Amino acid sequence: MHRLQDLYERLLAHFGPQHWWPGDGMVEIVVGAVLTQNTNWRNVEKAIANLKNDALLSLTALAGLPHAELAERIRPSGYYNLKAQRLKNLVHFLVDQVAEYGSLTSFFAQDLSVLRLQLLSVKGIGPETADSILLYAAEKQIFVVDAYSYRFLSRHGLVASESSYEEMQELFMDALPADAALYNEYHALLVCLGKEFCRKRNPRCRECPLQDDLPTDCWSE
DNA sequence: TGCCAGGCCGGGT
DNA sequence: ACCCGGCATGGC
Question: Of A16, A28, A137, A187, which one is least surrounded by beta carbons within 10 A?
Answer without folding.
Answer: A16
